[in-house]
Amino acid sequence: MKKNLLLVMMAMLSAIASFAVTDGQKYEPVNGYNLVNQWIYDRVHTTTFIRDAACNTRARTAVMSEGIIYVARSEEKAVVVGNDTLSQSVIHRFKVADGSPLPDLDLTLNGTPYTAFLGVASIGRDNFDHVWVAPMTSNVATEIPIYMVDTQTGAMTLVFRLPKGDKLERTDYLDVIGDITREKAECNVMTIGNNTGDAGSATCYRWHADKGAEEFEGGFEGDNSIEFTAFYPETKTGFSLAPVVKMVLGTTDEDRYSGELFYIDCFDSAPVLYDVSGSLIDTFEEVPHELQPQLTANGMAEFTIDGKNMFTYVIAAYDGNGHGCQANIVELGEGMSLGGMKKYWQIPADSLGKVSDTGLRIHCLNVDVDKENGEDVATIFTFKAYNGMGVYKMGKNVGGSEQPGTKGDINADGVVNVSDVTALINKILGTATYADATCDINADGVVNVSDVTALINIILAGN
Description:
By secondary structure, the chain is mainly β. It contains four helices and 27 strands. The strands form six sheets. The chain has a six-stranded mixed sheet with strand order 7-6-11-10-9-8, with no helix packed on it. Strands 12, 13, 14, 15 and 16 form a five-stranded antiparallel sheet that branches. Helix 1 packs across helix 2 (418-429) and helix 2 (418-429) packs antiparallel against helix 4.
């Protein structure tokens, strides 16, 4: 029976294990913290990603929410609407735990397929795990519609049409902080204007709604946008093409979702911290040369673990010199300064890929910090369109205390192979008594079938 169970489980997991391998890298502990790659699905470490529907230049952004990864792809599925054949937007889904695919969400609006041009160029979540999408808008569009997505059915609900006001610029990527429904908290939405005919555009859009408010208003003291005049480096006069904005959580309950501080990242510079007056607060000017990001990549995120202020940012896009779609994880300096940052790791240590995504610029980074066995553990998701994605875990006891090459050696015979899978299944069935710490391969605090998936991935990665 055990043999049959093993064969059945191996067959069930083969599709997962064929791509959800690890990056095979050893990340040395830093300041008492470990980092492990849970899984990776990309051009460098797998062979199937390039054939997946999520590997497409119309699949530009992704987000992690409540244990699921959502990859938004515009204009994917052919549908007939009336006498026309149109392309419906789709969201591809994967499990955060092991990368295994879930059924796609075919997006609908008012009961009909959602077929807008670049209709889901931007996908994200608010701080209450409402998943939202927004389209690219042109420099003649006067409003930006933003939709909330039913993550079970794919049905979209219009939250609001955000007016641009007098300044009309193209918009690509949005950020939302607070509660997009305004039921539990205020909500702020931001995006950066850009114009292919004017790479020096300096327009920043912002909208605000109080808790309980029915409508949004201009987020710059009632105005929908302002023109920035301070840049880094000082020679810059605008935000260049396809810039990214990311609002920072406030430090008190009162200002937690105010978004009064935010980063703006452009493909020709590094992340810059601003406030709502447009003033420049912090830059990479004092950051050591070896930590300076290379050009053509946009993306960053702050997070806190055990009271330490951490920052992850893209160091290079597909065309980086010696790099391919990677990000640094650093601890910020005193007073959360960029200049005092200390590098912990680079993810992945090798690369996600080095293939042109046709200039999409954005690199999506999400971080969740939760308690596992009573300790803070950060789950870090990295996604670069057309090149790949992966999930990493950071914590004091993540990955246990194994020496290199011994993780997954359940039966302690000095090698990690299919006999260890049998041993792990016996542990799960209750017919073996191997230690929980040895069997908890994915370090999530429990021993179950997901650890079998993780162990198979380790075995395949080593072959």
